[in-house]
Design goal:
50 residues, mainly alpha
């Protein structure tokens, strides 16, 4: 796996964290859960690249 894949996966994790924090701050559970899902997907893909 290339560096591009690693960058994409990490950026998905960062975007997911931002969505989660925003969802918590605004009380938007749907956005919060979506962010959590994005973080997990990014982590799983990154671990698969090792």
């Amino acid at each position: 796996m290339g560096a591009d894949d690693t960058v994409k996966n990490r950026s998905k994790q960062v975007k997911g964290k931002a969505k989660e924090v925003t969802g918590k701050a605004t009380g938007n559970k749907k956005l919060e859960r979506s962010g959590q899902k994005d973080m997990v997907v990014g982590e799983v893909k990154e671990r698969g690249n090792i």
